[in-house]
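Exercise 7b. Backbone tokens:
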């Protein structure tokens, strides 16, 4: 029997939904590169239901309990004495979502001698100290592709929202105004701008493809270059380093994972190399940007706008400066947890659990760490090390 702890975000303040705006979800045949959608033997949820919150339980309870396993579901994940810390010492498996990450620091891993598997219900396993997981032989897996397109849609939406000054214009409507000049004074067309992505992996490439019809000049940087025919089709310019990308672009959208190489990549030095009045959208991870350097750049006008949905830590303290900095279009971390995405990652988590329980191999494309080293997607896109430092600050969300 395994003990599984599943850390999920709280239910809606108005209670678990009884109805949804739409009756069903579009049926996808496969992911854009042909990869198979999750293939669990069965699911016990209705696709389109809210699965990522505590009452949704990722649709796992019936499956786990009927096969004799114990499932603990909680949103209480931060600070000493939280349910997550209390339940961790005899846990075999931890499931967590990046939107409400259960930070698996080296200290917590040390207190969980039975822990063998950490599953990310989504993409991006930086909330796990991957170095500590490697040292302890813990397998880390995520549901590759499950919400990549979801995030790309959010990133394009936020690029347009910033450049066209959507949120302040919407605010004038709510304030019962008709202040055209106030709205227009910071509003531009995206057409003709130089727009670049940091990374052209699953999300970055999906963003580039979605931006092409806007008649912009596309750019990207990545550790590995895209195939020549893809570059040609998109008309995208490759930059061998992020500094060159920063100097060339009016808008940058960030899509690399957070790992030691990308931690605080956008700091004062890099921001000073960007064109004055550039925009950044970051739906990758908050810590890829230096929190205070972003605030300074917005206040000085070096950046015209910053948006995204990722923060550090999560949830951010109530006084996190990104809540109040000028010209931002931040959302909570929601881009990858649309109801459409939830159906895919809940099925993917079930697939991983079924494999684990029946001792079948987990798909290579889901692996981040296995056998004491980076594996699968992890070996391609991550570097060894730890980026969970400072995550204990998430406990301040409760206190303030
Ligand atoms: P992929 O693995 O498909 O792509 C990541 C890309 O980043 C790869 O092409 C990789 O390069 C590249 N990369 C890694 N390090 C660097 C670097 N130092 N400089 C430039 N490029 C780099 O992942 P996805 O596109 O699916 O997801 C990317 C990230 O987006 C996730 O790791 C996660 O942090 C975030 N995310 C956010 C979500 C949200 O809800 N906001 C949801 C899902 C993901 P290569 O492989 O060529 O070496």
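Sequence design result:
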């Amino acid at each position: 029997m395994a003990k599984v702890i599943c850390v999920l975000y709280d239910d809606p303040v108005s209670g678990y939904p009884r109805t949804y705006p739409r009756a069903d979800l579009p049926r996808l045949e496969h992911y854009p590169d042909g990869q198979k959608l999750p293939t669990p033997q069965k699911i016990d949820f209705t696709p389109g239901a809210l699965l990522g919150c505590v009452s949704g339980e990722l649709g796992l309870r019936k499956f786990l309990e009927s096969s004799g396993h114990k499932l603990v579901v909680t949103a209480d994940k931060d600070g000493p004495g939280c349910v997550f810390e209390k339940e961790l010492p005899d846990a075999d498996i931890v499931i967590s979502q990046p939107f409400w990450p259960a930070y698996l620091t080296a200290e917590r891993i040390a207190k969980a001698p039975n822990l063998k598997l950490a599953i990310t219900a989504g993409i991006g396993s930086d909330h796990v100290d991957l170095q500590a997981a490697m040292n302890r032989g813990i397998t880390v897996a995520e549901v590759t592709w499950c919400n990549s397109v979801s995030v790309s849609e959010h990133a394009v939406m936020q690029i347009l929202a910033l450049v066209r000054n959507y949120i302040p214009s919407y605010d004038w409507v709510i304030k019962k105004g008709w202040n055209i000049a106030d709205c227009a004074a910071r509003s531009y067309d995206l057409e003709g701008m130089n727009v670049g992505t940091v990374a052209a992996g699953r999300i970055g490439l999906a963003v580039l493809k979605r931006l092409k019809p806007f008649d912009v000049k596309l750019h990207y940087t990545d550790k590995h270059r895209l195939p020549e025919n893809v570059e040609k089709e998109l008309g995208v310019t490759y930059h061998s380093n992020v500094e060159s990308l920063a100097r060339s672009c009016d808008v940058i959208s960030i899509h690399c994972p957070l790992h030691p190489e990308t931690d605080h990549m956008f700091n004062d030095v890099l921001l000073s190399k960007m064109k004055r009045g550039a925009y950044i959208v970051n739906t990758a991870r908050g810590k890829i940007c230096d929190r205070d350097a972003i605030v300074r750049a917005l206040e000085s006008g070096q950046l015209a706008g910053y948006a995204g949905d990722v923060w550090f830590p999560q949830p951010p303290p109530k006084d996190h400066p990104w809540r109040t900095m000028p010209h931002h279009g931040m959302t909570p971390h929601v881009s990858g947890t649309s109801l459409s995405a939830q159906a895919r990652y809940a099925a993917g988590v079930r697939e991983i659990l079924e494999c684990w329980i029946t001792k079948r191999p987990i798909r290579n494309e889901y692996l981040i760490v296995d056998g004491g080293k980076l594996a699968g997607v992890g070996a391609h896109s991550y570097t060894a090390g730890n980026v969970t430092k400072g995550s204990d600050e998430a406990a301040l969300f409760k206190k303030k």
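Instructor comment: The pocket of NDP is lined by residues 122-124, 147-148, 151, 198-204, 221-224, 255-258, 261-262, 283-285, 309-310, 333, 335-336, 377, 380-381 (CB under 6 Å). The first strand starts at residue 3 and ends at 7.
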